[in-house]
Write a structure and sequence with these properties.
The protein is α+β, with helices and mostly antiparallel strands. 27% of the residues lie in helices and 32% in strands. It has a 5-stranded mixed sheet with strand order 3-6-5-8-9, with no helix packed on it. A hairpin with a 2-residue loop joins strand 1 and strand 2.
Length: 157
C-alpha cells in the first residue's frame, strides 16, 4: 500500500507544481496576455489619435459669428449637463450631416446655466429640413479637450 506522500504525488500532474502551473507554462500564458494587452493599448491610442486629429482639422468659429442670415437658415436647440471640473474654460459644439463626421464647429465659451440647470445653446445658420449630428467637448484654460459627448441628432427647423 502506498503512503500518503505517494498518493499526493500521484494527484499532482506533470504540468503543475504543487497544484500550480509550472513556470514555463505560466510564462507562456503571461506572454500571450501581455501581447493582447499591448495590442489593445495600441488600438486605443490609434482611436484617440484619430479623434484628436479630427478635432484639429475643424476650425471653430466664435459663437457670435454666423455665416448666413437667420432669415434663410434653420436652427437646432441643444442642451447638456455642465462640466464640473475646475478650470473649465468653455465648450465647443461639433456638427455635421453624417453620423460621426463633423464638418463644422462653434466655440460657445462658458455660457451660464439655464433655469433647468443645463447649458443650452441654439445652433443657427443650418439648412432647414436637414438632419444634423451633434457632439460637444469641454476644454480647460490650457486648451486641454475632453472627448466627444454622446452624439445626438435633430432636423434643423
Amino acid at each position: 500500500m502506498a503512503s500518503n506522500g505517494e498518493k499526493m504525488k500521484g494527484r499532482v500532474g506533470k504540468d503543475s507544481f504543487f497544484g500550480i502551473m509550472k513556470a514555463e507554462a505560466w510564462i507562456a500564458r503571461t506572454k500571450w496576455i501581455l501581447l493582447f494587452f499591448l495590442v489593445f493599448l495600441l488600438l486605443s491610442a490609434i482611436a484617440c489619435r484619430t479623434t484628436e486629429n479630427r478635432r484639429a482639422e475643424i476650425s471653430c468659429r466664435p459663437s457670435a459669428v454666423s455665416p448666413r442670415s437667420a432669415v434663410e437658415s434653420g436652427a437646432i436647440n441643444i442642451g447638456w449637463d455642465p462640466n464640473k471640473e475646475p478650470g473649465l474654460a468653455g465648450y465647443r459644439i461639433y456638427y455635421g450631416t453624417s453620423a460621426g463626421s463633423y464638418t463644422s464647429c462653434v466655440d460657445v465659451g462658458n455660457p451660464p446655466k439655464s433655469s433647468s440647470g443645463l447649458i443650452e445653446y441654439t445652433l443657427t445658420a443650418l439648412d432647414k429640413g436637414k438632419k444634423y449630428y451633434i457632439a460637444v467637448i469641454a476644454y480647460d484654460n490650457y486648451q486641454n479637450m475632453s472627448g466627444f459627448s454622446i452624439e445626438v441628432s435633430d432636423i434643423a427647423k
